[in-house]
Design goal:
It is a single chain. 51% of the residues are buried. Strands 1-2-3-5-4-6-7-8-11-10-9 form an eleven-stranded mixed beta sheet, sandwiched between helices. It has one domain (49-315): Alpha/Beta hydrolase fold, catalytic domain (Rossmann fold). The protein is α/β, with parallel strands linked by helices and 319 residues long. The chain has helices at residues 3-13, 82-89, 91-98, 126-130, 135-149, 164-175, 236-244, 306-315, and strands spanning 21-22, 35-43, 46-54, 69-75, 101-105, 152-162, 182-186, 203-208, 254-258, 263-268, 276-281.
Length: 319
Amino acid sequence: MSARSVAGIAIVSVLVACSTYGPTGAGESSDWSDGTAAHVTVVGALTRTFLVHVPSHRRLSSSGLPRPWPLVIVLHGSGGDASAVERQSGMDSLADAQRFLVAYPNGTGGAFNLYPSDWNAGTCCGAANRDNIDDLGFIAALIKTVAVHVPLDSRRVYVAGFSAGGYMAYEVGCQLATTVAAIGVVEGSLADDSCNPAAPVPLFAVHGTDDPEVPFGQDAPSPPGPVPVLADGLPPSVQFWAALNGCTATTAKGAAKSTSANVVQTSWTSCLAADVDFYSIQDGTHGWPGGPDDPGALPPMNEMKASVLMWQFFIAHVR
């Protein structure tokens, strides 16, 4: 992380919020130039912090004019933080190459930050759930904050998450469906028994079959409709989303194919509502596949680049 980012985080750590809610809070960083910088927003009684990475070059239209930025929000796992998932996902270098913004929010350890950081993702997770932390409000406020400071393409806002952050990405799909164009889940699950999105949400997901922390077969709410045959044996959360999006045998073009020795892609691209694209990693464990950190950097997890495939899926979908 740059010296500017470290300085920004130091400033955030001594801020005292003076408003009850707002897309920008006391002490909001004025640095929205290229690179990674720390920012804040106020949600209820809490000052929430996040990093934003801005590439040095914008995407251009066919006429050569700069386009508004797409935004990918990446949520860390339980006990993690923004800097951890920034490194783990390797999303900054991809953002620089493909020219999109990346935001990395920090979860909380409950109302007083006494516990490991987590997200309030339905019935998950930890103190964030017990203390009813408004993480949905935080993500909505983060998007508003970014839009105030840089040209944002509101039709291309995406939310991804790892582990507990993956639970939260599903929760965003359930509750902020009219705000995001697609969600991405890495080694996560759905924990919202009342999930009923107000609009269709495409899903990209990946899961290792030997994940010891979020099991491949982790329980999820019962599917709201018929589950397509190709989803048999896939994680219950993926079955739920495939049924939710109307990916039935008669209405969707489904395909399952091996993309490497241990990776199988199962996708539906003609669903009644929105696409679903799932990758299973045989013998895969709990990490960001293809990332720089173990176990994501080790076989068989390194047989796919989750960030690259996720971005390719995201940019193909517009709200």
